[in-house]
Amino acid sequence: MTFGGAWGVCYAANLWSRVASRVLWKVADFVYRSEDEVYAAAKAVNWPALFGVERTLRVNVTAQKSPLRSLEFATLRIKDAVSDRFRDACGRRPDVERANPDVRVHAFLEASRGTLYLDTSGEPLFKRGWRKDSGDAPLRENLAAGIVMLTGWQPGEPFLDPMCGGGTLLVEAAAMARGRAPGANRSFGFEKLSWFDAATWERIRQERRMPEHSPTLFGSDSDPRALDAARRHLAAAGVERWVKVEQADILERDAPGAAGVMVANPPYGERMGSEEELARFYPKLGDALKKKFAGWRCFFFTADLRLPKLIRLEPSRRTPLWNGALECRLYEFKMVAGTNR
Ligand SMILES: C[S@@+](CC[C@H](N)C(=O)[O-])C[C@H]1O[C@@H](n2cnc3c(N)ncnc32)[C@H](O)[C@@H]1O
Predict the structure, then answer these.
(1) Ligand 1 — pocket residues by CB below 6 A?
(2) Taking every pair of C-alpha atoms in the chain, what is the biggest distance, in angstroms?
(3) Distance in angstroms (rounded) separating the CA atoms of residues 46 and 341
(4) So what's the pLDDT on residue 132?
(5) Residue 185 DSSP class
(6) Ligand 1 centroid vs 264 CA: distance in angstroms?
(7) How far apart are alpha carbons 133 and 185 in whole angstroms?
(8) Where are the alpha helices (DSSP H) in the chain?
(9) Tens of pLDDT, residues 277-294
(10) Inter-axis angle of helices 141-151 and 168-177, to 10 degrees?
(11) Which residues of the chain are under the pLDDT cut of 50?
């Protein structure tokens, strides 16, 4: 998605987007056939006007149908172009830093066109600042937020994640309902760029843009270690007050209310064990939902495209989504007593 506007729009997009991974600022667009032409295009950008030589730098290259043989070499040439531009301007070169650079340059190379971007986000935006450990296969925060939005959940209705793991969906749903900016507790790449305007940034940080609701959220998991992680994360995100967490098997627990939205991200692949195990589990899950969740809209996010067949319920909606490189679906089942089968 592309957009334009004053720098304040860029600050606000970084602070408020729950679903974006990064906000990139386009600094060059060029046609190329060789590494030398990529170097020339990168050197034509006035980098010393964009950030100071004391900033550490990292260059990332992504290519699709590029004729260049080595992306590593293309990366090196772009880094050289940026460094040479600094050397020409001030006699010094910025240091390269892979792990935690101040400034990130992204290059996208297609068959004959290339684009250079300065990364205004820094660390990817799914890093909200509340997760200290990566835990057991958590959803990325921006994917979890997107899933919650796709369910159409409104803060006035109960929300349940009965396979909550580290609680990503619960944290994101609660933060949304509380009107919290997802980036309130982190820093951004734009703070390291020359045109950074601290006064505008402070004003945007202070603005309240979203209404504050008092939601009712519920989380459960059969694994007590997952619940410990969920509690830690909810507390770190400052939303534990709105979420009730308990140990329960999804096949046995009751619905916390007469109607609401249930969202689960069941284990998938090796971690769930054999295919037979899944084939035994899903029909029971379908039966449990019919028995206990009449009146609820139940969503499952999974890479297992056999789920509707195994659960023996007809989805009212299937939304294709990508979890990294893994093709997934968000299935919706509207649970109405006595129907669906
Ligand atoms: C893929 S993980 C969920 C990850 C979570 N969405 C997150 O972002 O952290 C699946 C979770 O389902 C839980 N689980 C597996 N079988 C269950 C069952 N029968 N009842 C409740 N939870 C179960 C596992 O303990 C695990 O925490």
Answers:
(1) 137-139, 162-163, 165-166, 168-169, 221-223, 226, 249-251, 265-267
(2) 77
(3) 63
(4) 81
(5) T
(6) 8
(7) 16
(8) 7-16, 35-43, 71-90, 141-151, 168-177, 198-206, 224-236, 275-292, 307-311
(9) 888 899 999 999 999 999
(10) 60
(11) 340-341
Q: Which residue has the tokens 């992680």?
A: 229
Residue the block writes with tokens 């037979």: 276
- Give the residue, out of 133, 142, 222, with the most ligand 1 atoms within 8 A of its beta carbon, to mutate for a pocket test: 222
CA 57 to centroid of ligand 1, rounded, Å: 39
The pLDDT of residue 135 is 65
Instruction: Report CA(121)–ligand 1 centroid distance (Å).
Output: 31
Atom of ligand 1 nearest to the CA of 166: 9
Q: Exposure pattern of 3-29 as b/e (b: 16+ CB <10 Å)?
A: eeeebeebbbbbbbbbbbebbbbebee
Distance 330 CA to ligand 1 centre (A): 16
Burial class of residue 184 in the structure, from the number of CB atoms within 10 Å of its CB (0-12 exposed, 13-18 middle, 19+ buried):
middle
| Lookup: tokens for 245 | 């967490």
Which tens digits make up the pLDDT trace of 228-247?
999 999 999 999 999 999 99
**What is the value of pTM for the model shown?**
0.94
